[in-house]
Amino acid sequence: xxxxxxxxxxxxxLGCAMNARDSEHIIAELGxxxxxxxxxxxxxxxxxxINTCSVREKPVSKLFSEIGKYNKRKKExxxxxxxxxxxxxxxxxxxxxxxxxxxxxxxxxxxKIGAAVNTERFISVDTDxxxxxxxxxxxxxSLYKAYVNISIGCDKKCTYCIxxxxxxxxxxxxxxxxxxxxRKAAKSGAKEIFLLGQNVNNYGKRFSNxxxxxxxxxxxxxxxxEIEEVERIRFTxxxxxxMDDKFLQTFATNPxxxxxxHMPLQSGSTHILEQMKRGYTKEWFLNRALKLRAxxxxxxxxxxxxxxxPGESEEDFEETLDVMRQVKFEQVFAFKYSPRPxxxxxxxxxxxxxxxxxxxxxxxQVMQDDILDEISxxxxxxxxxxxxxxxxxxxxLAGRSDNNALVQIKGDESLLGQTLNVEITNPKRLALYGxxxx
Length: 438
Ligand code: SF4
Prior knowledge:
Elements: E1 7-13, H1 17-34, E2 36-38, E3 47-52, H2 57-73, E4 79-84, H3 85-90, H4 93-97, E5 103-106, H5 113-117, E6 122-124, E7 145-149, E8 151-152, H6 163-167, E9 171-172, H7 175-187, E10 192-196, H8 217-225, E11 232-236, H9 245-253, E12 260-262, H10 270-276, H11 282-295, E13 300-307, H12 314-327, E14 331-336, H13 354-377, E15 383-391, E16 396-401, E17 406-410, E18 419-427, E19 432-436
Parallel strand pairs: 1-2, 1-3, 3-4, 4-5, 5-6, 7-10, 10-11, 12-13, 13-14, 17-19
Antiparallel strand pairs: 8-9, 15-16, 15-18, 16-17, 18-19
This protein binds iron/sulfur cluster.
């Protein structure tokens, strides 16, 4: 074995849970094969990596200002690399705009990080590259929760979204690989398994090996729940289009599957949903969400909303508010539409005045705050089993109830990793405060 001198890695991750997991893969690869250890201090790093996101406009502009700062303050000889979705879509342009960058690897090329650090001006942004069976090393930021990828890429063509251009077509990871990874993580203490993919409930549609046995997302959930050490299973993101009865039934009846569902609405107007190419109608979305509420009274439902999509009229926007009133989401991630390069919607000629967009976003947020006040007050006096995962700077321990409410209690580190019954004594909009009960 060739001895490699220990080097330091500083990594900044922007964007979603998929990016966070990609960063864990990068850290594992560089640790196992190149002897890198993590540092929190950028100035002492031999390698500075920024793992980017391009879903919204801000992280892209942040990339160049961030790496410019790193370049001025880094130690002599340190390398800077750019990975992730922005790397995929900007490619060579990153070298042109920031010539001090040593390598660029796309979101679907993470397994090439070893070659990247050893090759000058390395670039690999191929969106056809198949990493679905690549055996990444082990690294996890949390002892208590393990993120596990179940697919890569996305086959949908939502007109506002850049992901298919940066992560390529959808390929499912073989069931056995996922189950083994979940088992390994659970045996090392992670009682919660968090499954990741762009459209998790489309799992099994395509494997790179065509002889892979037929299996769907419900089968995968049931298989993982057979692992004794796994207590909780979460996932993101499911697509409303694929929420068939079998999936809802498995979700409702499997006791290890946490009762919180992310249902990205995007718009409540069927007309706008068509323009977005989302593949479902307002009626279908409402039918699925209200069926979930009927099947599981304590379920929590979160969503994503884009306001002021091109062509969105006042009536279309009202349809979105109507869905919000009917479903009463526990969490809403709402954004004003921003055109992304390489997407169809960026070319639409009926863009909405940004001021109208800001006003709609504000109206939506005011309405959601009222809904949240009502929801949080209804939790007063309830008792939830809470999986304690974190000691916060405010001195509180934090964890999640099965239905994903953030719960905070007084306590010390010895309670980390335990599931405790907590009575809610002080419900707030963003967190529920409570006390341990026996
Ligand atoms: S489903 Fe649509 S929004 Fe989600 S990643 Fe795919 S293209 Fe983007």
